[in-house]
Write a structure and sequence with these properties.
12 helices, globular, 8 strands, alpha/beta, Rossmann fold, about 260 residues, 2 domains
């Protein structure tokens, strides 16, 4: 991979990157899938064989036949609702918007528990800020739900750590569209370019970063195998770097001289 420009601004995804809300998320998805017929979405599922991997085709087939996620998906706790809806509906933006709206209604019944995705997330964010970087949060979650989680995580919340927050209901199109990245840049008065990084755990984050013209850092907290990552990323939207944990991300973002002061 090419050498990275040192960041001045770093945007983060929420669920699956900084925070773990898998339990509530999968419960809400379980509530959405039986509603596909009522929502008019059953006939808009991706046709058989159109997924990027056999695993994605199997997920769509299971939802089409049983209106449920494969048990292995929930057991592995690796993919988010945004990725699930991307797999199910592909480029159908209206179908994905409808699914996200239904998810938000269902998530109200389950959300509450939120954990740091790794130990030491707060300390890592504080180090980035101390080095002079501006930080942002870009999440497909609705703002009211996200604000509650942000204020609850780690016991006392991380509300003072971000210079800008953009949520799913702040823009017309959620990730993987670049709208959220562009709005965050506009709010900070920063131009797109390699000195802006977007760190996220899904292909949707990487695609949004690339479409917006910023550096895409894939956070592989789910520990996907390299061969799988090669298969899931669209050719023009491969990440600029992959970090397997936040220690690796910190090393990428803060070269030795910046970390040591």
């Amino acid at each position: 991979m090419p050498r990275l420009a040192a960041p001045r601004t770093v945007f983060f995804d929420w669920h699956g990157t900084l925070a773990d809300t898998f339990e509530a998320m999968y419960r809400a998805v379980d509530d959405v899938l039986p509603q596909l017929d009522a929502l008019g979405l059953a006939g808009r599922l991706l046709p058989p064989g159109r997924g990027r991997t056999p695993e994605q085709d199997a997920l769509v087939d299971q939802v089409r036949s049983d209106r449920s996620l494969p048990a292995a998906v929930k057991a592995e706790r690796r993919i988010s609702r945004t990725e699930i809806f991307e797999i199910l509906f592909g480029p159908d933006e209206d179908a994905k918007h409808c699914a996200h709206e239904a998810f938000d209604r269902c998530y109200l019944r389950h959300f509450g528990k939120v954990l740091p995705f790794e130990p030491g997330v707060r300390a890592m964010l504080a180090k980035l800020r101390a080095a002079g970087l501006r930080l942002g949060m870009l999440t497909n979650r609705r703002r009211a739900l996200f604000t509650h989680e942000l204020n609850k995580v780690d016991g006392s919340g991380w509300g003072g750590l971000f210079d800008v927050v953009v949520c799913g209901d702040d823009v017309r199109r959620r990730k993987p569209a670049p709208d959220m990245v562009r709005r965050a840049l506009a709010e900070l008065g920063v131009g797109a370019g390699p000195e802006v990084w977007f760190v996220g755990d899904s292909t949707t984050d990487t695609v949004a970063a690339k479409e917006a013209g910023v550096t895409a850092i894939y956070y592989n907290g789910a520990k996907w195998e390299p061969a799988y990552l090669v298969r899931i990323f669209p050719g023009a939207h491969r990440p600029d770097a992959i970090a397997g944990n936040f220690a690796a991300l910190e090393a990428l973002a803060l070269p030795r001289q910046r970390r040591s002061g």
